């Protein structure tokens, strides 16, 4: 979602406020799943995955959400470990 028409949704998502975000029920379920994955991966249940399928997410899409969330978490931890700040990105990019 990009562009000015998505500003309210982007702000709500940035604030972690799914109730204020203008998203579909399927998108909400996927974001709730990713939150569970991020905070407590061991709590993911077969019923939660089945709920994603029931609202139209394919197994490939669910797997992609898992891969993306896991990769993001890994990259954040690497950046934190090396004290890489997004504002310092120009300092590490080749010129």
List the main descriptive attributes of the protein structure presented here.
single chain; 95 residues; mainly alpha; AhpD-like; 5 helices; 0% strand; globular
Structure characterization notes:
There is one protein chain. With 95 residues, the protein is mostly helical. The chain has a single domain (24-92), classed as AhpD-like. It has helices spanning 7-14, 25-40, 46-54, 59-81, 89-92. α2 packs across α4. The protein is globular and about 45 Å long. The two termini are 30 Å apart. The mean pLDDT is 89.
Short structural description:
With 95 residues, the protein is mainly α. The chain has helices spanning 7-14, 25-40, 46-54, 59-81, 89-92.
Number of strands: 0
Could you say which structural class the secondary elements and strand pairing correspond to?
mainly alpha
Which blocks of ≥5 consecutive residues have pLDDT under 50? none
Number of helices: 5
Helicity level: 55-70%
Estimated share of beta-strand residues: under 5%
SSE layout and pairing:
Blueprint: H1 7-14, H2 25-40, H3 46-54, H4 59-81, H5 89-92
Helix pairs in contact: 2-3, 2-4
């Amino acid at each position: 979602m990009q562009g000015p028409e998505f500003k309210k949704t982007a702000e709500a998502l940035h604030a972690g406020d799914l109730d204020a975000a203008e998203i579909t029920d399927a998108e909400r379920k996927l974001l709730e799943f990713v939150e569970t994955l991020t905070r407590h991966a061991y709590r993911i249940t077969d019923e939660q995955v089945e709920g994603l399928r029931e609202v139209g997410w394919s197994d490939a899409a669910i797997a992609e959400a898992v891969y993306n969330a896991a990769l993001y978490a890994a990259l954040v931890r690497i950046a934190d470990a090396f004290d890489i700040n997004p504002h310092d990105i120009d300092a590490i990019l080749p010129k």
